[in-house]
Specification:
- By secondary structure, the chain is mainly β.
- It has one domain: 2,3-Dihydroxybiphenyl 1,2-Dioxygenase, domain 1 (Roll), CATH 3.10.180.
- The protein is 9% helix and 46% strand.
- The protein has an eight-stranded mixed β-sheet with strand order 2-3-4-1-5-8-7-6.
- The protein is globular and about 35 Å long.
- The mean pLDDT is 95.
Length: 106
């Protein structure tokens, strides 16, 4: 199976950025990677965020896959699949020490 198509690079930060969107259920403010010239998504977590430590502390690369469930088979899942938006379903995995986000466009 191919790893998918690169979508963005996510970077945890403590700095507020213009254009952040707040994901209430996750307790994180995120920027739109499509608005950044290098497709960087900044993630600023609230202190009470329920997200795993890996997401709060490590950058990640994100890839669009055709079938999220198939792409997760046999992988070390850090965050189970969830609907990030109305059109994107995603999950996070660890590949050795690399944090990877896998995204499926609905």
């Amino acid at each position: 199976m191919t790893p998918g198509t690169f979508h963005h690079y996510g970077v945890p930060t403590g700095t507020k950025h213009d254009g952040e969107n707040f994901l209430e259920g996750a307790g994180v403010h995120i920027t739109d990677p499509e608005a950044h010239p290098y497709r960087v998504e900044f993630l600023r977590f609230e202190a009470e965020s329920c997200m795993p430590a890996e997401l709060k502390n490590a950058p990640h690369a994100a890839f669009v896959v055709e079938d999220l469930d198939a792409a997760l088979e046999g992988k070390k899942v850090v965050l189970e699949p969830f609907d990030a938006t109305e059109t994107i379903r995603c999950a996070f995995i660890m590949d050795d020490t690399a944090l990877i986000e896998l995204m499926q466009i609905k």
